[in-house]
Amino acid sequence: MDGNGRWAKNRNLPRTNGHLEGLKRAKEIAKAAADMGIKYLTLYVFSTENWKRTQQEVGFLMGLIHTHLRQELKFYKENNIRVRLLGDITGLPSDIQTDITAAQNDTRVFNGLTLSLAINYGGRDEIVRAVKKIVDSGCKSDAINDAFISEKMDIPELPDADLLIRTGGEKRLSNFLMWHAAYAELVFTDTLWPDYFEKEFIINIEEFQKRSRRFGAVPV
Ligand code: IPE
Ligand code: MG
């Protein structure tokens, strides 16, 4: 979800207004995904690198995450959405840790869409933490394969990503889902996140459906 700051700047508004508008789109896209029957949607909310932003912006984003998680149980219930955290919870402020734990517990029975919120998330950081878990478990190297490593990631049952959409014009992954996106189809759009509506989401999914996915094989 990239482009909140530029969206606000284009309107001579503070960056924080872009984040407020971006949150509205995040909810709309999550609802659209749930309505379509998509089982997993992962939103890149706050990266391990985003701490480099000003204290004011980081504080605003944490506040937004806090109020959202506190107030949106009704939204998740209505749309049958289960919330999961992707990222290092130990590096988050304690109130956010409490909010995340509560949101995960309160939504655990909802079985439509699993909405993974990547907060304090870095793809490499997730892999580093998985490797630590593996080493600490004292397992033998023979036991290690793809499936074994997947199980040590933040959300063990999170499947490989099929489609990765980046808004805001940059054409890079920025440390997102380094493990799960190995064979993801990539879509890059110049649309700034607060301007990314359901209509474009559907267009991007239709584009994905036209892609020929061979996973390295030769088509027969
Ligand atoms: C993405 O928008 C939102 C978050 C990282 C939370 P940006 O804040 O990166 O917006 P730009 O890239 O400055 O426009
Ligand atoms: Mg950005």
TrEMBL record:
Q: What keywords does the record list, in alphabetical order?
A: Magnesium, Metal-binding, Transferase
Q: What class of enzyme is it?
A: transferase
Identify the stretch annotated as signal peptide in this record. Answer: none
Q: What Pfam families has UniProt attached to this entry?
A: Prenyltransf (PF01255)
**Residues binding substrate, per UniProt:** 3-7, 15, 19, 47-49, 51, 53, 166, 172-174
Enzyme Commission identifier(s): 2.5.1.-
- BP term (GO), one: polyprenol biosynthetic process
What residues bind Mg(2+), as annotated? D2, E185
Q: Where is the active site?
A: D2, N50 (proton acceptor)
CDD domains reported for this sequence: Cis_IPPS (cd00475)
SUPFAM superfamilies attached here?
Answer: Undecaprenyl diphosphate synthase (SSF64005)
The UniProt note on the cofactor reads as follows: Binds 2 magnesium ions per subunit.
What cofactors does this protein use?
A: Mg(2+)
Q: Which Gene3D superfamilies match?
A: Decaprenyl diphosphate synthase-like
State any single GO MF term.
magnesium ion binding
Q: What is the annotated role of this protein in its UniProt record? A: Catalyzes the condensation of isopentenyl diphosphate (IPP) with allylic pyrophosphates generating different type of terpenoids.
**What PANTHER family does the entry give?**
DEHYDRODOLICHYL DIPHOSPHATE SYNTHASE 2, DEHYDRODOLICHYL DIPHOSPHATE SYNTHASE FAMILY MEMBER
- What subunit structure does UniProt give? Homodimer.
Q: Which family does it belong to?
A: Belongs to the UPP synthase family.
Q: What is this protein called?
A: Isoprenyl transferase
Supply the source organism for this entry: Treponema peruense
